[in-house]
Write a structure and sequence with these properties.
With 472 residues, the protein is α/β, with parallel strands linked by helices. It is 44% helix and 13% strand. The structure holds pyridoxal-5'-phosphate (PLP).
Length: 472
């Protein structure tokens, strides 16, 4: 029994060192471990399906169980050969920041309760806003991820442009837009009839002419167009919507322009990305997701808004039991800028990482991701067995195993079979997606620890599997 839920300093240190050792071993041994791991619900139910323990057991025993049946059963999204979906190539400083913020149990909701952390968040948000060329009026906050950032941004857009829910309001985005946008709209009460999914062009970018036609059509039918959501790097292909054109259209039409940069926005740190993302400095709101391409642990998203007062205007409510925290105008209460009142000190992860590595290291790390996708594309183009469907773009390349003699239906099937075999074998993790009705393979290469050999060997393995399946 330990009714104070507390330990001696020696006990705490001993347990803490065990945790640090686990993490360091994980990070150092990762490249030699399999990427994937599969167990059935029945196996795990057997291993973990116990009743709520009445008495405690030792820390060592818990760690042993974690090693054997919990952490041994995770796919490593931070593995240098994890190329599926969007990898999570976190970094150790971000991990330590999470540990510190949680150990000190920082309440990052109000200035009164954590002024130092509030200032760190303010500074970090400001650094990011500057990276994207947003004006001094811009502000934002850290949230749990890209989905929450998109939800926050769309709530602001609705408040500023419509003043609240509107039956007539319509919203526009391409068919390549991440599902979190549609989910956010659903949460905010928009119906399917209010959503305009504009077909993307050949390069998987939002078609601006089609957008303009749709806006005019809606206006003529008495609808109220109010918001366009642009992709600053789609999840499928890394395509960037024509941001500069969209800025012009939205300015002319008086629409809110939100950019979902959850995947691709950090490419601004590279020369190539800066060119592709031109126009991003003029959006009304921008989602970025540091737990993807800014190398932070999960639960680190960020929303930036061109005029920070718009966040406050949307979310600020002052109940009587919080009157004591309402400070001076210059003191930021981040709970007034978003959905969460009690919020953890997420900003510390990026602040410590930027300070420890310097932005120059981040520039190289991001550029490396772009280069790895180019290596993949070159490797694929050298072989007769592959068709490149979308070229290396913001760290993503899509392609198909498609020998000349193979017919369309078979090609679709083979891609899935290749992925299934890769998951079983564990050397690398790749995923499929669908582009214009065709199943394709996709590599996302943003891990700064991925090597050229990782890419080449992965493609070679997939090619071997494809040839074996097809018998060539
Ligand atoms: C473009 C884009 N937007 C939004 C999201 C959702 O982000 P999160 O998973 O952090 O909620 C993702 C996730 O992959 C994404 O790629």
């Amino acid at each position: 029994m330990n009714e104070k839920l507390h330990f001696t300093p020696e006990e705490m240190r001993k347990m803490g060192y065990q945790v640090v050792d686990r993490i360091v071993d994980h990070l150092c041994q990762l490249p030699d471990k399999p990427v994937t791991r599969n167990s059935s619900p029945a196996q795990l139910e057997k291993a973990l399906g116990e009743s709520l323990p009445e008495q405690g057991i030792s820390f060592e025993k818990i760690m042993q169980q974690l090693d054997e049946v919990v952490f041994s059963q995770i796919m490593h999204l931070d593995h240098p050969r994890f190329f599926a979906f969007v990898p999570g190539p976190s970094n150790y400083i971000g991990t330590l920041a999470t540990f510190l913020a949680s150990g000190l149990n920082v309440f990052a909701g109000t200035w009164l309760e954590a002024s130092g952390p509030a200032q760190v968040e303010r500074v970090t948000v400001d650094w990011i806003a500057r990276l994207f060329g947003l004006p001094k009026t811009a502000g934002g906050l850290f949230v749990s991820g890209g989905s929450m950032a998109n939800l926050t941004a769309l709530a602001v857009a609705r408040q500023v442009k419509l003043g609240g829910p509107s039956e007539r309001a319509t919203v526009y985005f391409s068919d390549q837009t991440h599902s979190s946008v549609e989910r956010a709209l659903k949460i905010l009460g928009f119906r399917q009839e209010q959503i305009r999914r504009i077909p993307s062009d050949e390069a998987f970018r939002l078609s601006a002419p089609e957008l303009e036609v749709q806006i005019q059509k809606d206006r003529s039918q008495g609808k109220q167009p109010f918001c366009v959501i642009a992709n600053a790097g789609t999840t499928n292909t890394g395509a960037v919507d024509p941001l500069e054109t969209l800025v012009k259209i939205c300015n002319r039409e008086g629409l809110w322009l939100h950019a979902d940069g959850a995947y691709g926005a950090p490419a601004i740190l590279s020369d190539q990305g800066r060119k592709l993302l031109k126009g991003i400095e003029s959006v009304d709101s921008l989602t970025i997701d540091p737990h993807k391409w800014l190398f932070q642990p999960y639960d680190t998203g960020c929303i930036l808004v061109r005029d920070s007062q718009h966040l406050k205007m949307t979310f600020h409510i002052l109940p009587e039991y919080l009157r004591d925290v309402e400070g001076k105008e210059t003191e930021v209460n981040f709970c007034d800028y978003g959905i969460e009142l009690t919020r953890s000190f997420r900003a510390l992860r990026l602040w410590m990482s930027f300070k420890m590595f310097g932005i120059e290291s981040f520039r190289r790390a991001v550029s490396h991701g772009l280069e790895m996708a180019e290596t993949a594309e070159k490797t694929l183009r050298r072989s007769l067995y592959w068709d490149v469907v979308s070229p290396a773009q913001l760290g993503v390349v899509t392609f198909r195993f498609a020998p000349d003699s193979m017919h369309e239906e078979m090609i679709d099937k083979v891609q899935q079979q290749i992925v299934n075999r890769m998951i079983r074998e564990g050397y690398a993790m790749v995923s499929t997606t669908e582009l214009k009705g065709r199943t394709v393979l996709r590599l996302c290469t943003i891990n700064p620890r991925t090597t050229k050999e990782d890419i080449q060997n992965t493609i070679q393995k997939m090619e071997g599997i494809g040839r074996e399946i097809y018998g060539i």
